[in-house]
Write a structure and sequence with these properties.
Helix content is 29%, strand content 23%. It folds into two domains: 159 residues, Vaccinia Virus protein VP39 (Rossmann fold), CATH 3.40.50.150; 41 residues, no CATH class. With 226 residues, the chain is an alpha/beta fold. The protein has a seven-stranded mixed beta sheet, with helices on both faces. It has a two-stranded antiparallel sheet with strand order 6-7.
């Protein structure tokens, strides 16, 4: 069965992503003895779920999230959460983190111009980056857990969101609320994602042979010390 829970450590796709990120982090630990990670749109809860996979005595993670409910909610040694807009991170200097990580966030930042700003910040701030997003042409809308919903005209889709709860989305109480919900997730196809992250190879995550998610990984090898 396809496990798409955002917190379960039994989510096989997230487990593979975590392992890929761990390998990137390990390359910095081996060369520098430490690693700094900026998680765009992330939460300390995600890192807590996978905490046994990382050496937090030498890895420092900063989660930037526009939702203040996450700020310092469940921080622990090695992981801190702060308020911030991932499309505008002028507080952070160029290449100020070893690794920028983002899991299922770019589709939530807004329209195309906001997505370009998000991608520009990820590329600017990190020496390496790992960015994942759900794939538009996968038949199940992952937030609504509803087949084909994201392929329907908005004039049809909002009626479904008003008629019943859809996955993580509660039943909308008005047309405005339904449309706001639908527009909170704008999924990308391969060419769009590759345009945003044009300095990284794009990998496909597949389920039963069908592309489910896209991942952009730019791994800049750290300079060895000594």
């Amino acid at each position: 069965m396809l496990n798409i829970s955002p917190t379960s450590d039994q989510n096989s796709f997230r487990r593979k992503r975590v392992e890929a990120v761990r390998r990137i982090i390990e390359s910095y630990l081996e060369s520098k003895g430490s690693c700094t990670v900026l998680d765009l749109g992330g939460t300390s809860g995600f890192w807590s779920t996978w905490r046994d996979n990382f050496d937090f005595t030498r890895t420092k993670v900063t989660c930037v999230n526009i939702d203040t409910a996450h700020e310092a909610a469940t921080d622990f040694d090695g992981v801190v959460t702060r308020y911030g807009d991932a499309t505008n991170l002028t507080d952070f200097a160029d290449k100020s983190f070893d690794v920028v990580f983002s899991n299922s966030v770019v589709e939530h930042v807004g329209d195309w111009s906001k997505m370009k700003q998000f991608a520009s910040e990820a590329k600017r701030i990190g020496h390496s980056y790992f960015v994942q997003t759900p794939y538009f042409w996968f038949p199940i809308e992952p937030h609504a857990r509803t087949p084909f919903l994201h392929w329907l005209p908005q004039s049809w889709a909002y009626r479904i969101v008003m008629a019943r709860r859809c996955g993580y989305w509660p039943r909308a109480r008005s047309v405005s609320e339904a449309i706001d919900t639908l527009q909170s997730a704008r999924m990308l196809d391969y060419r769009q994602f590759a345009e945003l992250f044009d300095d990284a190879p794009i990998q496909r995550e597949r389920f039963l042979g069908v592309t489910k998610s896209l991942v952009a990984i730019r791994h800049t090898e750290p300079v060895l010390v000594g």
